[in-house]
Amino acid sequence: xxxIKNYIDGKMQAPISNEWLDNFDPSCxxxxxxxxxxxxxxVEAAFQAAEKAxxxxxxxxxxxxxxxxxxxxxxxxxxxxxxxxAESKDNGKPxxxxxxxxxxRASANFxxxxxxxxxxxxxxxxxxxxxxxxxxLRKPLGVVGCISPWNLPLYLFTWKxxxxxxxxxxxxxxxxxVTPMTAYLLSKICIEAGLPPGVLNIVHGLGHTTGxxxxxxxxxxxxxxxxxxxxxxxxxxxxxxxxxxLSLELGGKxxxxxxxxxxxxxxxxxxxxSSFANQGxxxxxxxxxxxxxxxxxxxKIDFVARVKALKVGHPSEKDTNLGALVSKQHLxxxxxxxxxxxxxxAKILCGxxxxxxxxxxxxxxxxxxxxxxxxxxxxxxxxxxxxxxxTIMPFKNEEEALEMANDVRYGLSATVWTTDLNRxxxxxxxxxxxxxxxxxxxxxxxRTPFGGVKDSGVGREGGFEALRFFTEPKNVCIQx
Length: 480
Ligand code: NAD
Fold this sequence. Notes:
It is a single chain. This protein has 15 helices and 23 strands. By secondary structure, it is of the alpha/beta class. A 7-stranded mixed beta sheet has the order 15-16-17-14-13-19-20, with helices on both faces. Strands 10-9-8-11-12-22 form a 6-stranded mixed beta sheet, with helices on both faces. A 3-stranded mixed beta sheet has the order 1-5-4, with helices on one face. Strand 4 and strand 5 form a beta hairpin. The chain is globular, with a radius of gyration of 23 Å. Residues 147-151, 156, 174, 176-177, 207-208, 211-212, 215, 226-228, 231, 234-235, 249-252, 283, 384, 386, 412, 452, 456-457 line the site of nicotinamide-adenine-dinucleotide (NAD). This is 5-carboxymethyl-2-hydroxymuconate semialdehyde dehydrogenase. GO terms for molecular function: aldehyde dehydrogenase [NAD(P)+] activity. Keywords: NAD, Oxidoreductase. It holds the Pfam family Aldedh.
């Protein structure tokens, strides 16, 4: 039985209460490990270690910080196969995806911020006519909290931790209790890389206990959170009265606008990915597909045929396109939306049923599902399903497409397929989303701001935005 430990003060530790949670393998529905059910006292121990480490770490030269973070990146790369296999087993995602995307990106996160911190600088302003000069220091905040979800476990965990550490903060971090394994392996990598004890502390456990203890800790100065909108709301309510800095990356219900003048084959290939990559469990998946009337019937036939050809299989098999959903509870939630479709006057065009894989009968597999809807106002188009389920419907013109795209509480990303430059500019300006992709999807340059508008969150991650979040500007004005 795999026993995951907390990483506190540079050491692997059991929870103080000695209470444990089961860790499930979604590909077969069986318990394969135990994780700490950490309480307030573990979070307090992690905080104490971080607070103790802060004076030294915040005064460590940028070159040394950068070297340690680069070393972590190297070790993640060296251990690619082990980490990818662990991520795939813990989450249910195809091993091919973990190998090509999740783990390389986790390494890239550390490498990127190892470099970025050497280029990050405060500003100066000369107050002309007053014989004064202002310069702005960028001070690390102190001890910060990083909380991440289960869909891209190591990828999103490191996306927060790397900039926090690069900027000179010490961190108390919690991965999702549903997918804790690669965060645990990262602890060992940090020890091997020579990260000083207490600089990063990883505490495992449930959201409403361990996570809550991090958020309500009076001395943890900032919370960087990625997860569901309801959790984000709760965190904001808890943290705001303590005036903590908050970065909230929340849910999405992203529109995909397909115009008749697009590069059809590229669009079809990419739409397949933007719908079903990681079993549709990516906050950036385009789950509401709107297609221009004149190509709607053709798209419908082609898309259904391509989706039917996708292979749902065991995550460890190389040709698997869709692995298992992350948990039984999540599978049941997604199935409930599908079962409810007929009551919303919506038609299931393909998929919709559980898949049984011989030898893994209790795994959480689901067919990729396309549902044709009659209105954007239905529950299937308004609520985040976060599984292998997309809806499609036609639109008459650009105006109608834009209106439907924006008519939702979320605003994370939007994808537009067109070769008309003027339309690209009009829509990019008017779509209510933090990230717009035109003729592509999930193309990421780590320097760009990442985050959503409306109920998809507040704040931006990525590049210098993340380093600004994890530092406090302090202005010094000198008159001479
Ligand atoms: P979740 O909100 O249930 O959990 C996210 C994390 O928060 C977990 O570590 C959980 O333990 C913790 N948590 C739960 N309650 C807490 C509390 N009261 N205090 C502190 N921490 C708490 O989300 P999930 O189900 O793990 O992930 C899926 C959601 O994440 C989806 O809504 C998806 O859109 C969103 N997501 C957003 C982005 C983005 O960048 N915007 C990226 C990935 C996922």
